[in-house]
Structures are given as C-alpha cells and as structure tokens.
Amino acid sequence: MADGLDWESLTEATSGAVGALVSTTVLYPLDTCKTKYQAEVQSHGQRKYRNLSDVLWEAISKRQFLSLYQGLGTKNLQSFISQFVYFYSYSYLKRLYLRKSGARSVGTKANLVVAAAAGACTVVVTQPLDTVSSKMQTSAFGKSKGLWETLSEGYWSEAYDGLGISLLLTANPAIQYTVFDQLKHRLLRRQSSNVLPANTESSPAALSASAAFVLGAISKSLATILTYPAIRCKVMIQSANTEDESKSDTRPKHPKTMVGALSSVWRREGFPGFFKGLQAQILKTVLSSALLLMIKENISKSTWVAMLALRRFLLVSQKRIKSH
C-alpha cells in the first residue's frame, strides 16, 4: 500500500493545499469586496458600488466589518480541497505523461493539456463549494447563511450553477501553472550547478520564497488578463440575490448562463463592463497565487521529509502485520 502511493504527487498536493489555506485566510476581506463589486451589474446612473473601496466603506458604515469574513470557512474548505485535488492531479498526470512518452520534460502544449485535465477534475469535485462560497460572499452584510442552509435553499442542481464556465476557466490555472513551470524550470536549470547529485530519497528541487512569489505573480497576471471576462460572468451567475434586488422588479435578475451574463453586461455597461473589477481581480489573485506558491515552495522540502517518514512508518507497519 505504501509503495503504491505516488508520494511526490502527494507532497505537491499537500504543500499546495496548505499554501491555499493560508493565502485564502489572509486575503479574504479583499476577496469579499472584489466578489461583491464584480457581481453588481447596473447602468452607470444606478451603481451602488463605483469602486472597490465603496464595498469596504459599506461594511464599516454598517458596523459589519466582520461580515467581510462571511463564508470564510466554506471558502477555506473549497480552497484546500481544490488545491489538493489540483496539485495531486497535475503532478500525477505530468509524471504519467513523462513515463508513457519517455520524454525528459513536459513541453508547453502537453503541459497545457495536463493542467487543463487537472483543472477539470478539480472543478467537478469542488463546484458546489465554489457556488456556495460565492453566494455567501455576495449576500447582504450580516445576512449570510451557513453552508448547509445555503446548499439547501434551492434545488441541488443549482449547486452546479456555472459548471460550464468553470470548466472553461480551467484555462486560467492551465495558463498560470504552465507559465510558472516553464519559468521555474529555466531558473532552476541556471542554478543546477548548486544542486546535489540525483538521489531518489532527496527532496524535489524548489525555488526560494522570493523567486516563487515573483514567478507566481507574473504567471497569474497573464492568466487573469486573458480569462477575465469569463471570470466576471462566473461571479454573476453564482452570486446571491440581495435584499435590494428582491424588493424591486426593476433591478436585473442574475443570469444563469454565460450568454445571459455576457448579454447583460453588454446592454448595461458596454465593452468596459467585461473588465469591471479587473484591477481588484489581479491584485487579489496575484497576491493569493504568489503567496500560495511561495508557501508551497517554502514548505515542500519539509513536507517531503514528512512524507518519507510516513512512508517508512507504513512500510514497517506492513512488515509487522505480515510477520504476524
């Protein structure tokens, strides 16, 4: 059993999941402000939020600052599972490709395919939690419901609202991690003279914290810019109906399809609306991704040592069981 596990993939997954947990918690208030700002689709004269700071000021003025953390538990659960599944799938599929193809490294095209496949696996597993966390974040301050109550208030199929667009957005991490991996490979190759001789028990090569942060920021910025219109449509589809919308028939209802979301933005905000909140998205996602990758790279060696210790413990336990 111990030898049957892919320990390097498990190390990647665990390191990535821990990094996601920390980065999500640290940046959550910014994420809540960003999500509420993106979810609003109004004509220019009716905007409630003219910029990101308006969301923060609303929370402060209503003495609901702690509501900026509404849905944090669900978001952390979603982030942890999502990153664990993604990093495990990505690492496993990449190693499988190298083993089957006999190549020494994964090319850009193959890396994109592997990253997209890993992203699709992640989306299918975590979509309900993603939908619920978006509804909790976009609820009126102080009015957010719990995880189970939010899941139960509609049909279970609604938990998969935006699944199609989420699958489309697997291009985002695919682009991000492909760019990151290529930049990381080139940087480590330059530093190869300082690397110890190959050893099956040695830890995988890792970047320094600062290098991982910079490469993470660059790769995520590029991925975010290329996929942002779809990102905003996804937030609109998954967002909660606020109290103001329920009291007024003149307010737009949240679209349930990507075509509906695109049409709504085009009619009410024009072309610039497709990029409303882009600066906030880049700020949040770049900081989050760079922090995640920095933590992941920084703890990967410690995680690898822990996994080796766990593997040895399992092997010893198996031998003892067989001997009896």
Automatic annotation (TrEMBL):
Keywords: Membrane, Peroxisome, Repeat, Transmembrane, Transmembrane helix, Transport. The keyword Transport applies. It holds the Pfam family Mito_carr. InterPro entries: MCP, MCP_dom_sf, MCP_transmembrane, Peroxisomal_Ade_carrier. It is a multi-pass membrane protein. It is found in: Peroxisome membrane. GO terms for molecular function: ADP transmembrane transporter activity; ATP transmembrane transporter activity. The keyword DNA-binding does not apply. GO terms for biological process: ADP transport; ATP transport; fatty acid beta-oxidation; peroxisome organization. Solcar repeats lie at residues 7-96, 106-186, 207-302. One of its GO terms (cellular component) is peroxisomal membrane. Its main location: membrane. It comes from the Eukaryota. PANTHER family: PEROXISOMAL ADENINE NUCLEOTIDE TRANSPORTER 1 (PTHR46650). Belongs to the mitochondrial carrier (TC 2.A.29) family. This is (wild Malaysian banana) hypothetical protein. It comes from Musa acuminata subsp. malaccensis.
